[in-house]
């Protein structure tokens, strides 16, 4: 049996393979499965966007496979939940995360730690060969720091701090991050479905 994950992101694929490594599935990215399709993510929730991606890839794939897709992002409470489902497109799709991170920190100038609460959210959708679907949502709670820190991770990791670890998620080892991350949590929940 195959699992096709609707992404070209190698960071995500590494995480998926680590968490699902003990399953008896061949795990492929879209590219490895020979799928090249444009997907318009126009849902208004992480769950809706994950399902849109999973269905599009399932429709494009000619064969038996479980198709998984995720949609994830950062919600900052003091910013009314922004950037939310627009996390990847915040300030424009081609804007480097260093600029996006700097902008969020700038927008939180003068905001106390208690009010800098935030979370990473990840929704994982599955489309099974018989057409039925499942969606799981994982989160990790934290706060937005005052400056970026760390070289591990990607995206908003350098500004997202977790109290229990006293550091940003970009300062954690991949093993530490996978154990508590939003994507790790959602992947483990979906693993039970598989």
Task: Describe the fold and architecture.
With 194 residues, this protein is α/β, with parallel strands linked by helices. It has a seven-stranded mixed β-sheet. It starts with a strand and ends with a helix. The longest helix has 15 residues, at 46-60. The protein is built from five helices and seven strands. It has a single domain, classed as Maf protein.
**SSE pattern:** EHEHEHEEEEHH
How would you classify the helix and strand content by structural class?
alpha/beta
Q: In what order do the strands lie side by side in the largest sheet?
A: 2-1-3-4-5-6-7
Count of the domains: 1
- Specify the CATH class: Alpha Beta
Mean pLDDT: 94
Tell me which CATH architecture applies here.
Alpha-Beta Complex
Low-pLDDT parts are: none
Beta-strand content: 15-25%
Largest β-sheet summary: 7 strands, mixed
The CATH topology comes to: Maf protein
Number of strands: 7
Radius of gyration: 17 Å
- What percent of the residues sit in helical stretches (DSSP H or I)? 25-40%
The outline comes out as globular
Number of helices: 5
Distance between the termini: 11 Å
